[in-house]
Amino acid sequence: MKLLQLSPADLRHQLAGTGVWLRTGPFSLRVRSRIPHVAEGLADLYGQFEVRNSRQAFADFHVELNPPPLRRWFRPQVNFSFDGTLPFKPLPLDQAYPMLEWGLNWCVSMHAHHYLVIHAAVVEKNGLAAILPAPPGSGKSTLTAGLVLSGWRLLSDELTLIDRKTGLLHALPRPVSLKNQSIDVIRQFSPEAFINRVSHDTAKGSVAHMRPPRDSVLRQHEPARPGWVIFPKWEAGADTMLTPRSKAQTFMFLAQNAFNYSHLGADGFRVGAALIDQTHCYDFRYSELNEAVAAFDRLAEHRIS
Amino acid sequence: MKSVSRDLLTRTLRSPDAVARFSMGEWDILVRQARRAGLLARLRHLLAQHNLIEAIPAEARWHFDAAATLAAKQQLAVRWEVEKIRDALKGLAIPVILLKGGAYVMADLSAATGRLFNDIDILVPREQLGPVEAALMLAGWHPTLLSVYDQRYYRRWMHEIPPLQHVMRATVIDVHHAILPDTARYHPDSAKLRSRVVAVAGMPGVHVLAAEDRILHSATHLFHDGELPHGLRDLTDLDLLLREAAVDPDFWLRLTARADELQLSRSLFYALRYLRHFLGTPVPDSAWAALDAAAPNRVTLALMDRIFTRVLAPDHASCADAFTPLARLAAFVRAHWLRMPAHLLIPHLIHKAFISPYQRSPKPA
Questions:
Q1: What is the ipTM score, two decimals?
Q2: What is the pLDDT of residues A242-272, one digit of tens each?
Q3: What three-state secondary structure class fits A52?
Q4: Which of A87, B148, B237, B342 is most deeply buried (CB count within 10 A of its CB)?
Q5: What is the dihedral of CA A15, A19, A23, A26, to 10 degrees?
Q6: Which CATH number goes with the domain that contains B278?
Q7: How many domains in chain B?
Q8: Do B57 and A263 touch (CB under 8 A)?
């Protein structure tokens, strides 16, 4: 059963009660919350994801978003609870939905050591995936959103999951996080993009999430072969330009931006090195999203021929 | 269902074979209780010993594997850190004595299997505390940011200095000069502990406590520490330490005699009592008889049972009942009561309750 088949009242009722069991990529979640924005966010963005009766199923992560006991009315706040522990300080209640997304990223990056987990977006076309690592503010999420609205498959906008046994990339096509100006850029880029309500004044500015494309969710159990590691950088007025980049430097950057590289010991090195060996590494500068997408499309065509 | 699964983890630790018949709902609870208790990796090891890895359903398997990956990496890191600590303290010509987890790893004890770490504990002579702290600071370990009150509390009353954290690797060392605070009811003599240390093979200058002493230290820690986030993990440490040491026929006699000598018989009595309750650890009648004089009266014991059967269970919602919060509070107050006389304790608890929560100082690591 898909989440969109639950009526809004059922969804709210289940979230407030025993919780909603939800599958996202390789992970299952049980989410509980009495907060209307959380129910609304899930209904808006997770419609295509599988839900089950939470009473009997096994869940990887049990999470809860609810106000702390004394802060329901006075400057109301929200806590993210991971199975009864609170890894973060509470946030203003208005940020409940983005807090769910951040909390789920934390769950994966702190626990999923059967993958090498890198802080990077991943998109795929024609069977090959492009890994987009980049510091915040480089336009990584905007580019990811633009690509997946133009026929690329979304694997993740934040977490690259590299299978330690096969070296393949596993998909976790949760909603794409958009910040500040990117929200309007994406609205203008595609009228088909569905973006949920904006939470203002978060630690990252204004934040909203874009619904993942239906096709990406339906194919979430299909892994992809790594093809490229591309470091995007948005620069006002810049020409679209793809320049090759040193593999050694790229490896070092990925290792530093992995959540669990050091936890994996020698295996982290082996998995990272195998990834770099089979990918082409580039720096990518752009200012126009349309041109950027066209450049990526050319790259994907070129690799098949 | 809730009441049935309250002791699911401890039942599984006692009889692992039961997992072959677990429902997915039981696996869900088991993974959650084990994660909270810090026992996922150790449980995986136990299941592997019983050839039960294949019995773990595919959905749940990665949780165990990921925890085992983390535990393996931490053991490697502990060995590395111990070497660095030894190098830092080389010039002082004092023996570095490892306590608890660090000792289990370096002495290759079964209590090291699947163990997760928060910090490395070392014991040094009190008169060397200053030079030790200075040498560790030179090597990159700096005091964690504590409030002025906490700093003073540690240095004046505690048996350890404030935790030191390495500036690059973020590893934490607790430097102790005794195993209980100066203000505590009982004062096991640290010199007696140091006199029987065992050298770590292949690492000159590094020592661990004698087998009986490390068991007594771990037991004492359990019953003098206010907060027990890893109570059950520490019990499983003790279970493994005892089973390994008991291979020697004289062991139990030596253990109870040593407990008496160090004034730690009461702690040992409690530890064995709750080991039997949670993990079914075998304890010979002769040991119970030797500890008889150290047992509390029946009223105290009944109260302690009500507290510790709750407090030592995993701190997870599925293990709690209506009295669990009260039991945790009681254990907290009791531990402080044993650690400090009333004229120190009452102002301390008032400070912790009403002043510390409103200070903007970072929490200790």
A1: 0.93
A2: 999 999 999 999 999 999 998 998 999 999 9
A3: strand
A4: B237
A5: 130
A6: 3.30.460.40
A7: 1
A8: no
